[in-house]
């Protein structure tokens, strides 16, 4: 890990070579990202703390006071960084956030070393480049650039880099529960949500993440007296479980819209075919019926209703014995306005009295964040400095992020990564994860324009 003063000198050297301020900013972001990628911050390696310590050293080396920074967290391995950019007032702080832990990478399957950032044909390859060290590096680089310009925001800006978003999400809860000014935040901006659609040459929209689905899992268990497999019977724990799972598969929860998904559908209408446009309008009108578009467009289906799907199976105890029990895990993703008790009751109704249904996760509510005129203007004016006239479209994530811990406490959170989608499809968590260099630079410009308004 480099001493942060080196990073500061790096800036001074390229300035001496007559690089533009913009080029210095991009180079800083790329340097920080490369250093972060090189630290294998997976759960097994337990190195997220080292990424946070590195980010702290970068800020200290570029003029931030050590008493405004703290590497802290619920465990020694998953510590995050709490950093305050002091403003004129501390009454209404704004949180900007990212996570610095990553999922493991199968090194032998990658084209390059996943923990050494490598530039290939205009892309930066490495684990975490898109999820979410690119976001973390962008926040750190923006703090450094603003500090070098002597910028003072009207209110404090609190940066939270968390260390276990991919696993327990305890790090964000630690900051929420132990830092009063985090609890008092006006709102939060999450670099791990939202994205740009289209391409850098032909951008289509800025997807502002203002809601996310709620995680909820249950087990289905069937029991039987068992017996010898040479004398089979109609009653069988595995067959009974299979019947129960089939009922889950065939059930569609009702379509349920909120402000975010309503806005998503309205935007989808603009480019839809005549047939799809008619169906989308019916959904917006609240008409309850089967929709072909939701059968073919599974992504749209997932944001419009609660979904439940079987994900794990375990049954039987011997090859030559009738099973005495069988268990399946069913993972549900609830629309944020859904009642988990009602979902649980529906599952019990579907599978019948002979199947034991048990919740295995605590439900953490994540109410949609209101899309106010202030937020619309803040995001639109910032992204328009990079992509003029780009539409800002509300979107809901089907998965969960650290935002859930703040939303559940009444703090509005908006996913604003401003990172353009990969033209070959999203590679986070997968092989050869990467980000386009021009897309990363554009996200830096966005964060700079946005924080200048705070």
Describe the structure.
With 454 residues, this protein is α+β, with helices and mostly antiparallel strands. Helices cover 36% and strands 22% of the residues. Strand 8 and strand 9 form a beta hairpin.
Keywords, separated by commas or semicolons:
single chain, Alpha-Beta Plaits, 6-stranded mixed sheet, alpha+beta, 15 helices, 4-stranded antiparallel sheet, disordered N terminus, Aminopeptidase, 454 residues, globular
Low-confidence stretches: 1-16
Main beta sheet, described?
A: 6 strands, mixed
The domain tally reads 2
Terminal Cα span:
32 Å
- Strand % is 15-25%
CATH architecture of the largest domain: 3-Layer(aba) Sandwich
Helix content: 25-40%
Write the layout of secondary structure elements.
Elements: H1 4-16, H2 21-37, H3 48-61, E1 69-72, E2 80-85, E3 89-99, E4 118-120, E5 123-125, H4 133-148, E6 155-162, H5 170-178, H6 180-183, E7 187-190, E8 195-198, E9 203-212, E10 214-223, E11 227-228, H7 237-250, H8 259-269, H9 274-284, H10 292-296, H11 298-304, E12 307-315, E13 321-322, E14 325-334, H12 340-351, E15 356-359, H13 373-383, E16 392-397, H14 403-407, E17 413-415, E18 434-436, H15 437-452
Parallel strand pairs: 3-6, 3-7, 7-17, 9-16
Antiparallel strand pairs: 1-2, 2-6, 4-5, 5-18, 8-9, 10-14, 10-15, 11-13, 12-14
Compose a concise summary of this entry.
It contains 15 helices and 18 strands.
